Amino acid sequence: MSTTLNTRKATTADIPFLARIEYEASLPPLNHCFWEDLLDGTGTTALQFIEAELRTDASNWGNVADFLILEAQDKPVAAAAGYVPGTEDYCPLRLSRLEAIAHELKWSRENLTAFHDRYMAFWGGDLRPVFLTPQATWIIENVAVLPEARGRGFGKVLLRALLEEGRSQQHDFAGIMVLNGNDVARHTYESIGFKPYQTFHADYFSEQFNIEFPGVTKFGLRLN
């Protein structure tokens, strides 16, 4: 029996599912979510934080209205966000909404301050780091298929539908960024036409940020 697939725009009712998608998207290839390091000592899990981030419209990398959800047999199995990048802050979190996140999570002032300081240290205190500078008019982010639904081509179906959404919004160029070593994602993006155009290698991050990190590669695709 064939699987019935459909796509739809996300709503606030989808936030728990979108939080799981964003979490799953953050894992490869290190099998680790970077939010977990920043949340150490707060008593908050990465999933709880991501959900609060979405509820408070605090993401620079795609909020609820930016997500497209793929359903199989009327059940959500995958999602991805397509958004217009801001010009003031390229990092994942809108710090102006951090107080709202803290209120949502019932954080103490100490937790809020500790998280803020770790966040700024993690990104080097630069809200416009060179490696995150957008070169595309429209960015795809937080792409993930639930683990139990992988291996069935759902990622490609979702991305093709999202690219059509970008075309309908008259965007000219789509960009997407992949952590080096995430070969599954890279092959998926290349199979639908994305081409690599810029790589920041591990040496860049060790020299600029003093961290061990595999680096990132940016891919682009002309839409119109």
TrEMBL record:
InterPro entries documented for this protein: Acyl_CoA_acyltransferase, GNAT_dom, YpeA/RimI_acetyltransf
Protein name listed in UniProt: N-acetyltransferase domain-containing protein
Pfam family, one: Acetyltransf_1
Record's keyword terms, sorted: Acyltransferase, Transferase
Keyword Transferase: yes
Gene3D superfamilies: 3.40.630.30
Residue ranges of every copy of the N-acetyltransferase domain listed in the record: 5-212
GO molecular function list: acyltransferase activity, transferring groups other than amino-acyl groups
